[in-house]
Batch of 3 targets.
Target 1
Amino acid sequence: ALAQSAVNLGHFLRKQKDLKVRQPLSRAIVVSAKEDILEAMKPMAPVIAEELNVKAVEFASDESKFVSLSAKANFKTLGRKLGKRMKSAAVAIEGLDSAALLKLQSGEAITLEVGDGEAAVELLPEDVQVVRQEREGMTVANEGAVTIAIETTLTDELLREGIAREFVSRVQAMRKENDYEVSQRIALTFAGDEAAVAAVTEHKAYICAESLCTCFTIADSATTELDLNGHKAMVTVEKANA
């Protein structure tokens, strides 16, 4: 259930940042202040990596490396408790350090010196709204005790692999449209712009293995036009010679 929560958050982040599921990303970081949650999720790292199409899944207890944390008072709960002290408390809450915020996130109460000359007050997790500001190149979402951060920076290598994966998806769809048998070997003729040709050439072995292609040819033109993640290409899919 925890792994599924992380995967759901990851898919939400991909959609929010318009990152196609077939586009590989470098890493996802699962963050929780609760060590037992991290330990429970670590064996699920390969599943999370596959579901989110990331090269690596890492685990961390402190999300400050990926987001900047700040705090705001929850006037709805604190207003009833503090009355006229609310204004001073709100200022003090905005000054809470990351250690205090991590305690609140893990479900612990903290003691707050309001600074108005009166006694300190106890803050419960629901009394404080923790605000997350993503660091550059990361996108972050939280649900309960689990936060997931995904690195969104796309290297040239990742972009080429994304093109290749998109190409495989399109070829598989064409196999189905042509009503080929599942075991039918095929021949592919490919043409495209420089980036597209570089991508399919680099990942030729993967493409051939996934599509059952026994003859892969780079040419100047082909029969069917494709858009591969913004790159123009053409392909011809035929049954391979016996």
Target 2
Amino acid sequence: MYKHDHTKKPSDIPTPYEVCDYLYEILKPYDPKVILDPCAGDHRLTASFKNSEIINYEIKEGKDFFKASDPISCSLVMMNPPFNGTRPLFPEKFLDHTLNLVGFETPIVMFAPFGFRLNNHKKSERYKKLTSVYPKITTIISLPIDIFDLKTFHTEILIFNGSNLHLPPHLCLPE
């Protein structure tokens, strides 16, 4: 039987299949032609998009997204970046680099800890970016705290630039 060390935060927690399936169902009407996944893990987040070209980066496969410097043309970004790490938070680092490569118009679906959006001081750099630099958050998908195996964590999915996805402003993962 697998034993988990609860004293150490896992650095690579796969996206639950039920969340991948849910995202596919709500995004398939948009029919993205090219999807960028800058932290692909085991590729399950984009696996159902059979009619889309997928551009994957995964450090464990020798494709470091942060070494990419050329612009990337895609119609959708989907990412579940690692949450642990140094300041700034990895989701912030991934979002910043993604925006540098794809621009500020592409819809972005990003998993984030609540602290990414909510635990900011008025003068913090991230708060400034959320209020005046980052694209508009058009949809927030609430996830249960126990959605990930072996780890409870306050997580939400933020969708930036999603007005053409025609999603409501707030969704919850169905039971």
Target 3
Amino acid sequence: PYAPPDEYDLRVTFNRTEGQGPIEILLANRKHSFGLALDVKGDARFERVANKIAKDNPTSAPIAISNGRKYTVTVEVRKGGVSAFLGDKPLTQWKTDYKDMSRYALWKLPDEKLCGLGANNAKVIFYSVEFIDVTGAGKPLR
């Protein structure tokens, strides 16, 4: 477990080896938790934006994750908003104070201030997970 600072980048390299389900990057900003879902029926999006999970979610962007291929996703969490990149290409972004964002119930963690990774109906290899502190310093909790 790692408690992130107010502003950070989270870089994850992964490979979905089986299944067609989404990969989830669970994020937090202060007291607010939210997630980035990758390849949910061909879309990527920050989940639960302004109470919108899928339909009408303003952060939805087309994406297709192919099994057997390695990907790197970087999420930049800043005081004024959040941005996601697939490789070096922008994927989606949202200007926010994080009060309008939350996690989908399936991805609840015991401590919502922490980050995490997940997959639903898929097998995924996570090769690396990097926290890059931008403002302040995060801290390991063990």
